[in-house]
């Protein structure tokens, strides 16, 4: 079975072709970083317009690389949420149009769920359920108990900024480029992670929820103090980046492993762009020791991409046996 995956929920326009449930024939991602960099974050209106320009060229490139034509597609899998409404509409309407033209089914999938499925696609071994899933991306932070693919229980989520969003906002405070995560990670390598005592926030009554707006404000105030008399030095910038990164990693690792140990979880699967952060991975490895198996997504499946959308769609379709109705609407939020 050949599945076409389409992703357009934020600032990446992506198409992928998948054979079966994991053989990636092509995985094309057109990033819009150049447009949004100027504004230090994603500008929804600009993202939507760019998706319109890019979706068909990206589809053509995906078909070309896979050496396939449209008629060879058996299923179309597309992100229907969560994300920016205008951006989602471009991908979803493209999927519906192809589905109608080819008389082939299409299936709408949850972008956050697909980030977790990316980790399953990255490893040959079969994961034992229940396991724990952690999504840390630009738009989402979610800790979920995975009973099986498609069956989840939300354990924790952010009450303010997503992890990647916090990295991007702190990077902006430090006058770094967008996306800020990789820039912060680079500076942090030269910094002292214990110079500033930043700490992740606790949410009363919800021990596994995340709150990062407090750290962001602490960085802002520290920056103001440091720059009140003289410009920020390179070392101070590195120390701020390292202390922020340490605080965020400690918070995420502590909450995730506390839940895992308490509930005898043997495997954690990860998803989302922030999983590229080496310090986060190292923290997990150090703190987990051999108590839990840690499954990370491969580099080509960690950031937004359409191969994970095709993978999850193909799996769900094989279980369900039918596609979605043409009435399916995009959703900015989808509760777990
Ligand atoms: O998963 P993704 O492509 O987007 C969403 O679905 O939202 O992740 C993008 C996010 C950005 O916020 C970016 O700053 C962050 O992932 N990111 C990182 C790193 N690489 C990407 N954050 C920290 N360290 C990194 N190395
Ligand atoms: Zn994403």
Quick summary of this structure?
With 336 residues, the protein is an alpha/beta fold. The protein is built from eleven helices and twelve strands.
Characteristic key phrases:
5-stranded mixed sheet; alpha/beta; 11 helices; 22% strand; binds 5'-O-[(R)-(carboxyoxy)(hydroxy)phosphoryl]adenosine; 336 residues; 44% helix; binds zinc ion
What this model shows, in words?
This protein is of the alpha/beta class and 336 residues long. 44% of the residues lie in helices and 22% in strands. The protein has eleven helices and twelve strands. It has helices spanning 33-37, 44-66, 85-102, 111-121, 163-173, 180-188, 213-226, 234-262, 278-288, 299-302, 307-320, and strands at residues 2-7, 12-19, 23-31, 75-81, 106-110, 131-136, 141-148, 151-157, 201-203, 206-211, 267-271, 293-295. The strands form three sheets. It has a five-stranded mixed β-sheet with strand order 3-2-1-4-5, with helices on both faces. Helix 4 packs across helix 11, helix 5 runs parallel beside helix 7 (213-226) and helix 7 (213-226) runs antiparallel to helix 8. The radius of gyration is 20 Å and the shape is globular. The mean pLDDT is 96. The structure holds 5'-O-[(R)-(carboxyoxy)(hydroxy)phosphoryl]adenosine (KG4) and zinc ion. Zinc ion (ZN) binds at residues 111, 115, 137, 272, 304.
